[in-house]
Each structure stands twice: as C-alpha cells, then as structure tokens.
Specification:
Beta-lactamase-related domain-containing protein, four-stranded mixed beta sheet, Beta-lactam/transpept-like, Beta-lactamase, Beta-lactam-related, single chain, eight-stranded antiparallel beta barrel, alpha+beta, 13 helices, 26% helix, Lipocalin
Length: 497
C-alpha cells in the first residue's frame, strides 16, 4: 500500500465562507490525519489545502519510513501512482498551448510513427490522444501492466499491445488502462522531439517551480527527503507477530518508468499545491498574471469523454482526460430521513460494517485455495524446462531451480526475491527482454506458484503446465499474464534441443 496522500481541492462547507469556518475546516482535516497516523491506518500523511487561489495549509504527519522514523513533512517526496494521470494530462495541455496549433487533443496517437499499434489496424490508425487519456480505446485494462512487472521496457510493452484482443469495441466502453494513457502521452512528446521526462520538466514542473517533482525514477532517487512504500507487516512472508498486526513495514521502492505518464510521477504536498493553484486558476501560474495553459485544452481535461457507470445511488460518473469527472445536481431537493435508535453509537455501528467490508476485500485477493495436504510430486525438471513463446510475452525460459525453497506446497517463497535468480523448484525468465528471474514453487503435480511481488504473501498465482502424450510439457499457462488470454505459451524448445 502506498502512503496516503490527501489533497483538498477546495474547502467546502454550507453557508458563507468565513475565516473562522476555514480554520475550523483545516483543524478538522488535520485532526483526521493525525488520528489516521495514531491508529496506524497509515504510516504517514501529507496535506495541502488551497482556498481562493492561495495555499492556506500544508503539513505532514507521521513518518516517511517506519525503519528510520524520519518525519513526514509537506516537502516529503512520494511516488504519486495514478495521480500521475491528471498531472500528465496537464502537461499535454501545456504542450498543446505551446505548440502554436501543431498539437491538439484530437491528434492521432500512431502518427507519424506507430507508438502503440493495436490488434485492429483501423483502430491503430484512428486512435486519438483523447481516446487513450479517457480509457475508451477498448484496450484490455491490464494490458502491459503484467509485462512491466516482469521487467520489460516501455517500447517493448507498447509494441506488444497489438497482440491483446480488445475488451470493448472502440470507444464503446470504459476500461482503466495505464498503457493506453502512456501511449498517448509518449506520442505527444515524440511530436515535440522530446522525451516524456524532459517534456514534463519543461512544460509543467519548471514553469510552476515544482522543484521536488519529476517523471523520472532516477530523479526521485536523488531526493533525500523521500517516502518509502509500505505494506502491512502481516502480509509479509514469514511474519508471525499477531500482536502487532497494524504495523507497517517499508518495502523499498517501485520503478514505474515504463508507465511514467500513468503512474511514474513523484512529488510533494507543497509542489502539488502549486499544481492545484494552476488548475483552479484556469491555467495561470500562481501569484502571477502569466498564462501557462490556454483554457480550452485545460478545460477539455475536465470534460466528460467516457461514461464510467453509475454509483450505488444511481448517479452517473464520467471520466475526462486523466481526470475522474463527477457532477453534483443543484436546485431544490426534499429528502426525509427518519433516524431510529437515537441512542445507538452510530460511529461504532458503521465502523463494524466497514470493518466487515475490509475483511471481505482482503480475503478476496487472487489465490488458489489452501495447499493440498498430500500433493502429487512434480515430474522430473526436464519435463518442464525449455523455451516457451507467444507473441504477447515473447520468449520465456523455464529452468530447473536451485531448490532454495522447499516443495512443501505452502505456496510462498521465503528465501528468494524477484530478480535474484535463486530458489524455486523451477524458475522462469525472459532472456530477450528482461534480466529478471522468478522462482516457481511446486504446488501439486504440474501446478506451481508464482509470486511476482515477493514482499507480499498475498500475491501468489498459479503456473500450470499441460503435459503431452510423451510425458513432457507442451504448453504453460501463467495466470498473472492471462487476464485476457495473454498467458498461454507454447513450448518451442526443450533443453535438449
């Protein structure tokens, strides 16, 4: 889990704003943040609040790394994950403004060069920037995410999207896609003859004075005041201290460069406040009269392009360009709401309900059940080892492992980590496109477990070999890659070939 990042778009309260109400709202928000830290809901929080064009509060709570207990401040830099998407949309809007008409949101993504060909040549030709940024291209949402996890680079991943069948007809549905946005963003910086990282710096971070912000992982690593990613200690393999189940443990850092426009920004609360001021100022640099972005391309990012669906209350929600878009109805409304049991402790009541939901959610992680008590033994390693291939994944090598983990069918690997190359009853690697090796732990006969996130014991998924008449594997299904059929690979060469 990433550290919580709380960003208030604007103070909202009924009635006329007064200084007293503003300070009350700030006090309430900061109290909630401190309570979240005190209860171990998160290890650290940073907050920025903008009101009437000015930053009225910024601060930090808790720690940025539980192993060092260094304080979380408003200048602590953290990896922003999907908040990168509206930032990247802002960067494109700034590039459109600076292009003097040569760029627009309706530009073709795969022109003049094919950045990310799709399975249908017509879609590849027709795909526009706004299709990628609004998640309506029809691309299967997790396409590319799985390949990134295995260490493939951005250009390779984008070139492989053409081998993934669409999940919706073109522009007929909404599917959240990191690499749909990435393709559109990279197309834009390519047209400006720049890398995406340089474009982000020149068109947004530099002009706004966002000196702690970057779209480069290498830049993030240079920040001395940076936050680590954390996970609940109870989800770490080998963890047994049930009395400290709320403890957070740092897990290192994730390199998201391959999908930088969609998930690779790092920033601080103070820098994000400047971006928020730019948004609320409709493109004018904060505390100046200088316009960085024209209103038209900026307003397009906030305009509904795709219907996401309806909430449980029947309210339709939309997606713009990198932004979720929701409208609240104005006017008169009558709504009777009898409240029985006035003496009930409603806070405790709802806490119990939400606690049940959280337990159900945490129990719904991908898994393939309890390990068998008496598993059938695996075949000799030679029955599985060799090269496997499909167009989406490319070449995958299965090799004999060093048995650094036992084949006790516990489904976890406590002695190896992603990219180490050690352990496992078998290993898989990608010799042409990645330098990472992953252990496979025997589960039952021809089924093995794969954990591409070894810091967590909840990320285990099956790898299943199909055995031919000669007693050797003919295909393998890697479940982590098989969300839309991309995880079935044919054996093309065994180790004796």
């Amino acid at each position: 889990m990433n550290l919580l990042y709380l960003l208030a778009w604007a103070l909202s309260a009924l009635g006329q704003y007064t200084e007293e109400k503003i300070q009350l709202a700030i006090s309430n928000v900061t109290s909630m943040a401190q309570a979240a830290v005190n209860s171990s809901a998160v290890p650290g929080v940073s907050i920025a609040i903008v009101y009437n064009g000015s930053v009225v509060y910024s601060g930090g709570f808790g720690v940025r790394d539980t192993s060092t207990n260094e304080s979380y401040t408003a200048d602590t830099v953290q990896q922003m994950a999907s908040v990168s998407k509206p930032l990247s949309a802002t960067i494109v809007a700034a590039m459109i403004t600076a292009s003097n008409g040569s760029l627009a949101w309706d530009n073709y993504t795969n022109s003049p060069g094919a950045v990310a060909p799709y399975s249908d040549p017509w879609i590849s030709q027709e795909l526009r920037l706004y299709d990628g940024f609004s998640h309506r291209s029809g691309l299967y949402g997790l396409s590319g995410d799985d390949l990134e996890e295995l260490g493939l680079d951005r250009n390779t991943i984008l070139s492989r999207l053409q081998y993934m069948a669409p999940i919706y007809p073109f522009r007929a549905g909404y599917t959240y896609s990191n690499y749909g946005i990435t393709a559109a963003a990279i197309s834009t910086s390519d047209k400006m003859n720049m890398t995406w990282d340089d474009a982000a710096q020149e068109y947004l971070y530099g002009p706004l004075g966002m000196t702690s912000s970057s779209s480069s992982f290498a830049e993030f690593l240079t920040r001395t005041n940076r936050a680590s990613l954390h996970v609940p200690a109870s989800q770490i393999p080998g963890y047994s201290n049930s009395t400290n189940a709320t403890q957070w443990e740092p897990t290192g850092l994730r390199n998201p460069d391959a999908q930088s426009p969609a998930g690779g920004v790092s920033s601080s609360a103070n820098d994000m406040a400047k971006w928020l001021q730019l948004q609320l100022g409709l493109g004018v640099i904060p505390n100046t009269t200088n316009r960085l972005i024209d209103e038209a391309p900026l307003n397009e990012t906030h305009t509904p392009f795709t219907v996401r669906g309806k909430s449980a209350f029947g309210i339709t929600s939309f997606y713009g360009l990198g932004f979720g878009v929701d409208y609240r109805q104005m006017g008169a409304r009558s709504s009777p709401m009898p409240v029985p049991l006035r003496s009930r402790d409603w806070v405790a009541f709802w806490d119990g309900i939400y606690g049940g939901l959280e337990a159900a959610e945490s129990g719904g992680a991908p898994t393939f059940g309890a390990a068998p008590q008496n598993p059938s033994p695996m075949l000799a390693a030679e029955a599985y080892t060799g090269m496997y291939y499909n167009d989406y994944v490319g070449l995958m090598q299965v090799a004999a492992g060093s048995n650094g983990t036992t084949s006790s069918s516990n489904g976890t690997s406590n002695t190896t980590t992603s990219g180490s190359g050690g352990g496992g009853d078998l290993t898989i690697s990608f010799p042409v496109t990645s330098n990472m090796t992953f252990p496979l732990t025997h589960w039952d006969r021809d089924t093995f477990s794969l954990n591409t996130v070894p810091q967590l014991n909840t990320a285990i998924e099956p790898v299943i070999f199909a055995i031919g008449a000669d007693g050797n594997a003919t295909t393998v299904m890697v479940d982590r890659l098989n969300g839309n059929g991309g995880g079935i690979l044919n054996r093309v060469m065994d180790n004796s070939s």
